[in-house]
């Protein structure tokens, strides 16, 4: 419980810093106090309950922080800031290398980028450019979990996006943001790494 409490407090502080960062980014967002802090605190505390290796816990924490900031901006303004999508690559590159899964990460990133870029080229209205930029880092995480996670991530992201469309009550007249679905699906599969080949020991 000490770990969970520490992560709850740390997540709150990380969310507060993230909210300030969003306000200062050129294409960021103005977010009311409490949203980023509360959401990040909850996700970090949940991460503390996951029975995963210590190195993988760092991946989940970083993913939670990026997910809160990117999802918030995409839902509010329909965009994913380049400053965050590009920064995710070196951050997760280092963390996944520490976790010992850089080979699967590279393949997962390449597959996800190629797939999303192809969809963007064939149907520009289906995906935004930010979704393609984001897909590489998320594909690296999913590839590190397992090959099954890559396909499951695609399906789950589509389901979440459809659910968002259903509950948005016509708010998104042009295109429903797909970034939140991608991020939520990746977080769930990283948190519950079904069929994963992660090194030990675990964090309890």
Automatic annotation (TrEMBL):
InterPro entries xrefs: Prepilin_IV_endopep_pep, Prepilin_peptidase/N-MTase
A GO molecular-function annotation: aspartic-type endopeptidase activity
Stretch forming the signal peptide: none
A Pfam family it matches: Peptidase_A24
Residue intervals of the Prepilin type IV endopeptidase peptidase domain: 62-160
Gene3D superfamilies: 1.20.120.1220
Keywords tagged on the record: Membrane, Transmembrane, Transmembrane helix
Gene Ontology biological-process entries: signal peptide processing
GO cellular component labels: plasma membrane
Membrane-crossing segments per the record: 42-71, 83-102, 145-167, 179-196
Family: Belongs to the peptidase A24 family.
Protein name: Prepilin type IV endopeptidase peptidase domain-containing protein
Origin species: Kibdelosporangium phytohabitans
């Amino acid at each position: 419980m000490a770990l969970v409490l520490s992560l709850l407090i740390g997540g709150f502080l990380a969310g507060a810093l993230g909210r300030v960062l969003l306000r200062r980014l050129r294409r960021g967002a103005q977010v009311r106090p409490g949203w980023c802090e509360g959401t990040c605190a909850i996700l970090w505390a949940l991460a503390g309950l996951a029975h995963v290796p210590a190195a993988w816990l760092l991946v989940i924490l970083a993913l939670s922080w990026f997910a809160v900031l990117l999802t918030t901006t995409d839902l509010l303004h329909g965009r994913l800031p380049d400053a965050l999508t590009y920064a995710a690559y070196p951050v997760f590159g280092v963390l996944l290398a520490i976790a010992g899964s850089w080979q699967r990460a590279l393949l997962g990133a390449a597959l996800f980028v190629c797939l999303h870029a192809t969809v963007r080229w064939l149907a520009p209205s289906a995906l935004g450019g930010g979704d393609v930029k984001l897909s590489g880092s998320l594909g690296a995480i999913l590839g590190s979990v397992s090959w099954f996670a890559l396909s499951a991530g695609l399906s789950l992201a589509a389901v979440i996006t459809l659910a968002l469309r259903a509950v948005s009550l016509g708010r998104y007249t042009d295109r429903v943001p797909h970034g939140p679905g991608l991020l939520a699906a990746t977080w769930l599969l990283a948190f519950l790494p079904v069929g994963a080949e992660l090194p030990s020991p675990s964090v309890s």
